[in-house]
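User: Here's a chain of 108 residues. Predict its fold as tokens.
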Amino acid sequence: MKSDVKPGAGVMPSEGTPTSGHAEARLRDNISGSLDSLVEYLMDNGVKGIHPLVMGEIEKRLIIKVLERSRGNKLRAAELLGMSRNAFYKKVRKLSGMGLFAGADRES
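Assistant: Prediction complete.
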């Protein structure tokens, strides 16, 4: 479901569009169990640097999914993610350098 309402914007969304509160609750519900068990596993196995490991993977998957949903439109993806175009392009170039995107340096 599409929502153009940014968290904390204070704007009433159109009918049928989830509010930021609903989105936050769904996010919590979806990741809490998975994240809890992942952290337990990482800690039990002595993994250090859990924060950058987990956040890097989340950011990568988030960018890839939003790019897919925006049909490769990087400007739209940056807007949906709430980041500047320059910050978004920098992140995409970094991920591209890791071999995650074919032709990711092309402008959309």
